[in-house]
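Researcher: Structure for this, please.
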Amino acid sequence: MLSVETELKKQPIVLGGKLLEETYDDYQKEMNLINKAFIEVLTEGDMNGRPFTFPIPTYNLTRDFDWETENARLLLEMTAKYGLAYFSNFINSDLNPSDIRSMCCRLRLNLRQLDRNITGGLFGSGDSTGSVGVVT
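Model: Predicted structure, token format:
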């Protein structure tokens, strides 16, 4: 998401348990800076120039997606380089961005099967679980 979702735009921000007069939409400039830094780090890759395998960001494509921004350009360059981002297409869909929160892998581990191959604790099942080079 490169811009504030419609449902949040006019919501007051909560800071320290208190509602502020400012809304999320008032912070689009700061959101742009954070998004730019995030995309630049993912595009650069790790210290050897390899892509990060996680996180895999999901970006909502809507009719009002602004394709002409610097962040949109950087996002497409990152995608061309690594194929890294997921895109949720809401342009020709009956769904709204507020209907969906993630398109991640939904990994579910069967702990009874993991118990059979333990090589160093419950989550030490060798090559069967986990990722190499994960950034969280």
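Researcher: Any notable elements?
Model: Residues 28-44 form the longest helix (17 residues). The mean pLDDT is 79.
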